[in-house]
Every structure is written in structure tokens, then in C-alpha cells.
Amino acid sequence: MIDPTSDIGEDVDESDAPTCHTCGKKIVMEPEHRVVSWIEDDAVEHLHFCDDECHEGWSGRRPGR
Ligand SMILES: [Zn+2]
Predict the structure, then answer these.
(1) Ligand 1: distance of its center to the CA of 64 in Å?
(2) Which of 7, 8, 11 is closest to 28 using CA atoms?
(3) 38 CB-near residues (< 8 Å, 6+ apart)
(4) Local confidence band at 4 (pLDDT 50, 70, 90 cut-offs)
(5) How far away, in angstroms, is 11 Cα from ligand 1 center?
(6) Is 54 exposed, middle or buried (0-12, 13-18, 19+ CB in 10 A)?
(7) Which of 1, 16, 44, 50 is the most exposed, fewest CB within 10 Å of its CB?
(8) Hey, where are the domains in the chain?
């Protein structure tokens, strides 16, 4: 018996995938994926990072206020 729904697992459309803010890589199945969100002008902003290294690269260079 063949179950047509049991394919490779998650069907993630690449065009819907977020990209890493630091290196620009598509984040499709990254286990180390980080998301940072904050409120700016009453809207929620999100940034995606493929791993801790990219996240720290961004937060280290972020201009402080
Ligand atoms: Zn990255």
C-alpha cells in the first residue's frame, strides 16, 4: 500500500521561506534558525537568522540608541 501523503515531510515553498538578514541565505529547514522580533512604530518587525553566528554578527553591529 502506498500512502501518497507521506512524502519527504514538510512541504516548504522556497519562495515563502524567510532569508537570513546577515548572509541572505534562505531559511527552509535550519534547526539553528533564530527569529528576532520587536515593536517599531506600532508594527511588529521580524528578522530571521540562519544560526547564532549570523544573529550575533547582526546584534554586535547594531547601532545603539
Ligand atoms: Zn546567515
Answers:
(1) 22
(2) 11
(3) 44, 45
(4) low
(5) 22
(6) buried
(7) 1
(8) 16-61
